[in-house]
Design a protein that fits this description.
Largest sheet: 4 strands, mixed
Structural class: alpha/beta
CATH superfamily of the largest domain: K homology (KH) domain
Number of domains: 2
Strand content: 15-25%
Helix content: 25-40%
Shape: globular
CATH class of the largest domain: Alpha Beta
Strand order of the largest sheet: 1-2-3-4
Low-confidence stretches: 239-248
CATH architecture of the largest domain: 2-Layer Sandwich
Number of helices: 8
């Protein structure tokens, strides 16, 4: 049996965050989940040309925020933000509640796995050579400081009668390293001979913990064994050795032994 898992889902709560962030009880959980899928499908279908990589949804009480990550924010916002109001009204009419819409631009779309997969599918639909297309996308991603990339295309590639799989791997893809930042994307190309699926993995490097997390923890001195003298107290910073010695408690006075009397007296 295959042991494959989504790299983003494997790292949720470690270096990746959830795409939908809200809490609901059992009665309304299913309705909200279907609502999330409606919003994502509507935005992707209406703005498929805008290079949308992911859509995040947040709910706090009755307030809802839709965060769209795109490589071309201007295509969604329009001139002076005119299209933002139109998109907000369309989503509110779809789900029947007020929302807050945020548009975030992607700085390096060449290193985004979802956008790379969609770009490859767009070229395959135009009947471009698949090997050249995959090689060009990989070289572009590596030119943007990517550590490694893997591209997998499956289907009737080139119009062949029998479906096959083509793979291109350059660099390293440490899928089992949880702190490795690996982006994953999937897209489909619809051609006359059938459907070709494209998967892309891009390794961007490791996310190391912060300096506070890496700071050494204070060590605890081991307890002295029974019968041994107790350890001297730790010297406070800025206090000299002489001061530390004089600060100790004085020793108890020694009582001389009582004189003994001779026998018979």
């Amino acid at each position: 049996m295959g042991q494959k898992v989504n790299p983003i889902g494997l790292r949720l709560g470690i270096i990746e965050n959830w795409r939908s962030r809200w809490y609901a009880n059992r009665k309304v959980y299913g309705n909200l989940l279907v609502e999330d899928q409606k919003i994502r499908k509507f935005i992707k279908k209406a703005y498929h040309f805008a290079g949308i990589s992911k859509i995040e949804l947040e709910r706090v009480g009755e307030k809802m925020t839709v965060i769209v990550h795109t490589s071309s924010p201007g295509l969604i916002t329009g001139r002076r933000g005119a299209k933002v109001d139109k998109l907000t009204e369309d989503i509110e009419g779809l789900i029947g509640r007020k929302i807050n819409l945020k548009i975030i631009g992607i700085e390096e779309p060449e290193r985004n796995a979802q956008l790379v997969a969609e770009a490859i599918c767009e070229q395959l639909e135009k009947r471009a050579p698949h090997r050249r297309t995959m090689r060009k996308a990989a070289e572009t991603a590596l030119g943007k400081q990517a550590k490694g990339i893997r591209i997998l295309a499956a289907g009737r590639i080139g119009g062949a009668e029998i479906a096959r799989t083509e793979e291109l791997v350059i660099g390293s893809i440490p899928l089992s390293t949880l702190r490795a930042e690996i982006d994953y994307g999937f897209a489909e190309a619809i051609i006359s001979k059938g459907t070709i699926g494209v998967k892309v993995w891009i390794y961007k490097g490791q996310q190391l913990p912060s300096k506070e997390a890496r700071a050494p923890r204070p060590t605890i001195a081991a307890a002295a064994p029974a019968g041994d003298a107790p350890a001297a107290p730790a010297q406070a910073p800025g206090v000299s050795t002489a001061t530390a010695v004089t600060a100790t408690a004085p020793a108890a006075p020694v009582t001389p032994p009582a004189p003994t009397l001779p026998a018979g007296e």
